[in-house]
Every structure is written in C-alpha cells, then in structure tokens.
C-alpha cells in the first residue's frame, strides 16, 4: 500500500464532473493525458475505446496506473516524465491537462516549457485542453456554511480521510490546506497536514502565452462546480 497512491485516490479519484468533456474531446485518439495520476481520466477514456498515453512525474502513481490498466486488459502507454520537459517520440490528436495540472508547474516559465513540449507532440490541427480553477471563486464564510465533507477511502482495514481546512492567498496563487487522518485496523488515529499551492492563472494569460508556441485560441469550455469541487474554465488551443 503506497501512501502517495492512497492519498491521490482519496483526494482525486471520486471527481467525475469533467469526464464528459474529456470524452467529447478525445474521440478515438490518440490522446495524451498529462498529470494522469493513478488513471482517473486515462482509464475512463481507454474503457471507451480511445488510444491513450498517460504521463505523470510521480513514479508510484504511474506504476499504479499501469497495474490497473493491465488488470482491466486496457492498453495504456504510461511514462514517468515531467510535463515541462518530455519527449515521447510521437504526436497526438488531443492532449489534455485535467484538474488544474497547469497550475502546478511553477509559474509562467514552467507553463511555457510545458506548452513547448506539448506543441512538439501535437499534429497540425491537434487540440490541447487545459483546466484552470480559481479556488477563491467558491470561498464561503465558515460561520454561514458547514465545512465540506471529507473524502474517505478504506484499504485493507485502514480508513483514510482528507478534508480541506482553509484556502489562503500566497504570492501569485493560493495554498489549499488539508487535514489528512488515518485510522488503523486497531482504531489508532493519526493526523497530518498537507498543503498544495496552485498558481493563479487567468485563462486569457494562458491563451496569450500559447500564441508564442504556434497555437491558435479556440472557444473555451466550462466544467461546472459540484458540492465538493470548484468549477473550471478550460482553455482550448489548436496547433497551427
């Protein structure tokens, strides 16, 4: 039981509000899923017949994705690489960056490196779709609204739960603080804090950055919010 895999599944695996959009854009593929994690989107699309390649920078998550694909008899090519500097030696019809992956790249320099790498992997006319969220859009007064329910998962008698505690501004972004709790099979409780920092990126900023990499801006798409997750603006770019 790998801790990185478990927490990724706890905090991300249940999200499904974006899947219809990725299905629509994917077609038969070939499609590249950047920041694929344990395969939430990649497995979903492969089950529906798309030819999928998946990349992530965490080797444990990539191994978990590959294991799950084999267990289902799905052919997904998975690679442990950095989204800012990868060379897979092939091109794709569609590239997707779900769940705010583009906001985890370390600012404008990281985004431009990613855009250059993506452009090398897109055939002319190919599309890249990048989800962006502003966690402050859904900020609520805690005195008026109850805190969100925790994400919970059980593994071999262990119970894992994670809940957001606060979203606070930091320079050029937002820090999302979560409380992670683990209950062992004998009932022992342990707690830890986790912080993830998202770059604040406006859709127009990303679209302007993309122009320097031979992209044309296509109409944006929207993923609506749920009771648990903020919504996303999806920037869509066409390779020229």
Measured distance between first and last alpha carbons: 44 Å
Q: Measured on Cα atoms, how large is the radius of gyration? A: 18 Å
Helix content bin: 25-40%
Major beta sheet, specifics? 7 strands, mixed
* Beta-strand content bin: 35-45%
For the record, the CATH architecture of the largest domain stands as 3-Layer(aba) Sandwich
How many structural domains?
2
In CATH, the homologous superfamily of the largest domain goes by the name Vaccinia Virus protein VP39
- Assign the structural class, choosing from mainly alpha, mainly beta, alpha/beta, alpha+beta, or little secondary structure: alpha/beta
Shape: globular
Structure write-up:
This protein has six helices and eleven strands. The protein folds into two domains: about 170 residues, Rossmann fold (3-Layer(aba) Sandwich); about 60 residues, S-adenosyl-L-methionine-dependent methyltransferases (N-terminal domain of TfIIb, Single Sheet), CATH 2.20.25. With about 240 residues, the protein is an alpha/beta fold. The termini are far apart. Helix content is about 25%, strand content about 35%.
